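Is this the right way to post C-alpha cells for a design question? Let me know if I should format differently. Anyway, here goes:
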C-alpha cells in the first residue's frame, strides 16, 4: 500500500494529500460527532506535517469545544477534519479519501453515548469513553 493518500470534499473545493502511515479507523459515537455527521465519525489521523491541504480557504472551522475544532467544506458541507488544540495531528474522515485506502477499523470510542438506533457488532475493541492512546475531549 502506498504511503500517499489523496482525498477531497464532495464538491472538490478542498483537496488533501497525506504522506506516511495512517492510524487505523476509529469510530466515534459521541453526541457531537453524531449530531454533526448524522451518524458516527469514522476517522483516521495523520501528523500535521504529513498533510497538505489545498483549498483551505473553503474550510469552515467550528469550535465545538475548548479541546478541538471541526473542519468542513463551506461550499458542500462535507465533514473533513477534527483538529485537537495543542496536538501535532489532525483527524481526517475516512470517507473523504479516494480509493483504495487500505484503511481498517481499529476501535469504537464513546460507545456509552452511541445512538439507540444501531448496534456495534464488528468485534472491534469498544471503549465507554476513549482510550489513552486516542486523546479526545471528555
Amino acid at each position: 500500500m502506498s504511503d500517499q493518500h489523496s482525498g477531497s470534499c464532495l464538491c472538490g473545493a478542498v483537496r488533501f494529500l497525506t504522506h506516511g502511515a495512517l492510524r487505523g479507523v476509529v469510530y466515534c459515537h459521541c453526541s457531537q460527532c453524531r449530531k454533526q455527521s448524522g451518524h458516527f465519525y469514522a476517522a483516521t489521523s495523520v501528523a500535521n506535517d504529513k498533510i497538505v491541504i489545498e483549498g483551505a480557504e473553503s474550510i469552515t472551522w467550528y469550535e465545538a469545544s475548548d479541546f478541538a475544532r471541526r473542519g468542513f467544506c463551506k461550499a458542500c458541507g462535507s465533514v473533513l477534519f477534527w483538529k485537537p488544540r495543542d496536538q501535532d495531528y489532525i483527524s481526517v474522515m475516512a470517507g473523504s479519501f479516494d480509493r483504495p485506502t487500505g484503511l481498517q477499523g481499529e476501535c469504537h470510542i464513546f460507545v456509552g453515548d452511541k445512538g439507540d438506533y444501531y448496534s456495534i457488532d464488528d468485534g472491534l475493541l469498544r471503549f465507554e469513553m476513549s482510550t489513552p492512546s486516542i486523546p479526545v475531549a471528555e
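Format looks fine. Someone answered above. Worth noting: The mean pLDDT is 93. The two ends are 34 Å apart (CA to CA).
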